[in-house]
Amino acid sequence: MYNPSDDTFLIANSIVNCHGNYALEIGVGSGYLTEILCNNYKFVFGTDIDFTSVKHSKTFLKNFNNKFLICCDVCEPVKFKFDVIISNPPYLPSAGDGDIKDYTIYGGHTGTETTLRILHLIKSNLTDEGRIIFLKSSLSDDEKINRFVDGNSLKKSVLARKKGFYENLEVCEITKR
Ligand SMILES: C[S@@+](CC[C@H](N)C(=O)[O-])C[C@H]1O[C@@H](n2cnc3c(N)ncnc32)[C@H](O)[C@@H]1O
């Protein structure tokens, strides 16, 4: 399971003042960000591909009855439109054959494959006024992300930045207009 780290805290600062009705988090991990959502949104849906993370988060968030957590790939079974979708996705480029061996940190061949799958939810799972807030690292290739944004006439802005020794982190927001 992924323990809260610098990237977690950076995105936490960007969502702490967001409020609304329906929130979705992809990749809940320890449940650190999910807790913020549970305090600020009426209903929170969280997923993780890792069963241990879901089990841990369910225990960690046991006092919140506005959450629903499931173990699945991205949010495959969910047919609902949310006001906000957040994710601190795995974003490191996978070594060698591109096969993902550790889902907590590796996000596919260029590091952006899992992120792009999450961004595609903008079409199926986000309200027209909604936004996707996600974390991006300078270690992943963001050309595909920019092409997705431009190709779908979306708007991307940067909410927060942090310079690190090995990588620079950005919290990005994408909206439909
Ligand atoms: C970098 S960790 C972030 C965890 C936590 N949200 C945080 O900020 O500390 C990425 C999380 O995404 C999960 N994950 C990776 N691929 C996924 C997928 N395809 N569907 C759902 N969750 C996934 C991992 O298991 C991991 O818990």
Write the layout of secondary structure elements.
Elements: H1 6-15, E1 20-26, H2 32-40, E2 41-48, H3 51-60, E3 67-71, E4 82-87, H4 113-119, H5 121-124, E5 126-137, H6 143-151, E6 155-163, E7 168-175
Parallel strand pairs: 1-2, 1-4, 2-3, 4-5
Antiparallel strand pairs: 5-7, 6-7
Helix pairs in contact: 1-2
Structure description:
With 177 residues, this protein is of the alpha/beta class. It has one domain (6-175): 3-Layer(aba) Sandwich (Rossmann fold). The protein has helices at residues 6-15, 32-40, 51-60, 113-119, 121-124, 143-151, and strands spanning 20-26, 41-48, 67-71, 82-87, 126-137, 155-163, 168-175. Helix 1 (6-15) runs parallel beside helix 2. The chain binds S-adenosylmethionine.
Strand order of the largest sheet: 3-2-1-4-5-7-6
Distinct ligands, ions and cofactors found in the model? S-adenosylmethionine
The number of strands is: 7
Estimate nothing, just give the exact number of structural domains: 1
Count of helical stretches: 6
Structural class: alpha/beta
Percent of residues in β-strands = 25-35%
Q: What is the percent of helical residues?
A: 25-40%
CATH architecture: 3-Layer(aba) Sandwich
What fold name stands as the CATH topology? Rossmann fold
**Biggest sheet details:** 7 strands, mixed
Q: CATH homologous superfamily name?
A: Vaccinia Virus protein VP39
CATH class: Alpha Beta
What is the terminal separation in angstroms? 35 Å
List low-pLDDT spans: none
